[in-house]
Amino acid sequence: MTARRVLIWRHGRTEWNAAGRIQGQTDVPLDEIGVQQAIQAAPLLAAEGPDAIVSSDLQRAKRTADALAAVTGLPVSVDARLRETGFGPWQGLSHTELAERWPDEYAVWKRGETPELPGIERPADVIARMREALTDALGAVEGTLVVVCHGGAARRAVQALTGWSDEVAAQLAALGNCRWSELRHSTTRGWRLHAHNVGPLSGAAANDEPSTAADAEPAAEEELTSSPRS
């Protein structure tokens, strides 16, 4: 068996998302808006006809996956390899705090590169574990697989399937909370991106504020200057 279609779904909003804090692998729960985002988005994903759901073990992803499971009746498989990029000493800090405490390293990160700091996971390592997790999940189902994970991990999942370079992947906009990417497999061209940042157009799940548009990714200038709204 092998799935021919993958929907990579980012979890709903958390308080740290709203505050612009780096989550990484800290196990932060969904906030009230995040729960509503998952509940609202779940029927739309259910309409895509998923055959299996696999989720990161972090509770913000698992709670999002559970919303889809409640609609579809499908079980949720949990895989720690789908966790967000580890950000070590940066986890829990805002972008302003990072710029103040690690100005040189933060400047490196803003350029889209990985700073040399203990505890910060390198992209190649994230891609490797995402590839392993996806290979196992894809081999266990036919049809459509839903992968529930995180903002930075979702980008690496797309890379793992398509083989894109870091330079190409950097051009892919970060997923908003509770939005997803769709990839389909071609026997001649392999995995191809068919849709990106898909989600409801109204209600809680349509709340795609700049502050919630990235997880463990460099913030764009407008993300640093805008105030979170809810």
TrEMBL record:
- CDD domains cross-referenced by the UniProt entry: HP_PGM_like
Which Gene Ontology terms of cellular component type are present? cytoplasm
Q: Locate the region Disordered.
A: 201-230
Q: Where does substrate bind?
A: 10-17, 60
Query: For this UniProt entry, which residues form the secretion signal?
Result: none
Q: Name one Pfam family in it.
A: His_Phos_1
A molecular-function term among this protein's GO annotations: phosphatase activity
Matching Gene3D superfamilies: Phosphoglycerate mutase-like (3.40.50.1240)
Tell me the active site.
11 (tele-phosphohistidine intermediate), 84 (proton donor/acceptor)
Locations of Low complexity compositional bias? 208-217
The protein's matches in PANTHER family, at most eight in alphabetical order, are given as: BROAD-SPECIFICITY PHOSPHATASE YOR283W-RELATED, GLUCOSYL-3-PHOSPHOGLYCERATE PHOSPHATASE
- State the name under which the record lists this protein: Probable phosphoglycerate mutase
Q: Which organism is it from?
A: Cryptosporangium aurantiacum
